[in-house]
Amino acid sequence: MIYYIIAGEASGDLHSSNLMAALKNLDKQASFRFWGGDLMKAQGGVLVKHYRELAFMGFSEVLLNIKTILRNMAFCKKDILEFRPDVLILVDYPGFNLRIAEFAKQNGLKVVYYISPQLWAWKQSRIHTIKRSVDKMLVILPFEKDFYSRFNYEVEFVGHPLLDAITKDFEAPSIPESQKPLIALLPGSRKQEISVVLPLMLSVIPFFSEFRFVVAAAPSIPKEYYKSLIGDSKTELVFNQTYGLLRMASAALVTSGTATLETALFGVPEVVCYRGGMISYRIAKKLIKVKFISLVNLIMDREIVRELIQDELTVENMKVELQQLLGVEKRKQMQSGFDELRQKLGGSGASRKAAESIYRFLQR
Fold first, then answer.
1. pLDDT-based confidence at residue 282 (cuts at 50, 70, 90)
2. Are residues 296 and 355 in the same domain?
3. Are residues 214 and 144 in the same domain?
4. What is the domain range of residue 263?
């Protein structure tokens, strides 16, 4: 079978690479062409565009880069038609992927969506595009099956792929040995968010001299960029070693996104830190229909981890929350919530289940 996969972010690269590995176990003739990253590239096939060329965050940032986005979309459509895959597999990244889904369906291609757009948070009207253009939707959050059923659209819950990803052996981060306990800083994967959030995170370091701080760097961002933000701060930097870092961490400051869930599944007490552009934030606040921004709290439908959003994201607030996380009572309370979270996400094998579902679909 010929598979064309589009993943536009680091998390999509991770989950797509595991899906590709599972598909190769089922289909010995599997051939891949994809938009993604280094993890997908390691599975074999042709990398058309790296996700670092696609990552634009927020309303204003999208508007500023609209010409690039439209060029990418036109090129993608042309490439799909030339390649004529047996199936197009779209992984999250809805602003781009839903438009490609419509185009592909109009041109007679089979379309599978793996990892649903977060319609339950905002833009529920997109359900009509999905019902019209997506042949099979595979979801990874337990409440999404009920959400879609409200619109008479059947989806398949395969479990969360992070439950598989975190069970592997990970290389210890390449940092000097130290007796000090470690606090991890996960400032996101896009320049726009890193430039705002990382300097604030670094500002808490002087209050915790008994700890060492290590920044988990996004592989798509140059080392020099981080160095320009870190300056003389007493912190270290690691690339492609986030999971190894989390295995060692006593606590973490984490920018909202998949990283909040990854951190929780490793059992690391965390504070969620987010601040966007003012225009983007004001628009989002009017449109978003959920109580929380972190996946941990959304899945549990209550506050398990503290969210410091926009004006609440101050050095003082981060310091206070981090101090509480390092105390016995708060850690115990948060760990109990993390145990419940794992149970809600279902068992392991999400990538295998997703691959089996796609393969069965193609055989039919």
1. low
2. no
3. no
4. 182-344
Q: What is the pLDDT of residues 125-143, one digit of tens each?
A: 899 999 999 999 999 998 8
Give the pLDDT of residue 283: 47
Total number of residues shown for the chain: 364
pLDDT at 286: 52
Q: pTM here?
A: 0.79
Rounded to an integer, what distance in angstroms lies between the CA atom of residue 356 and that of residue 275?
A: 39
CA dist list (Å): 240 to 48, 256, 342: 22, 19, 24
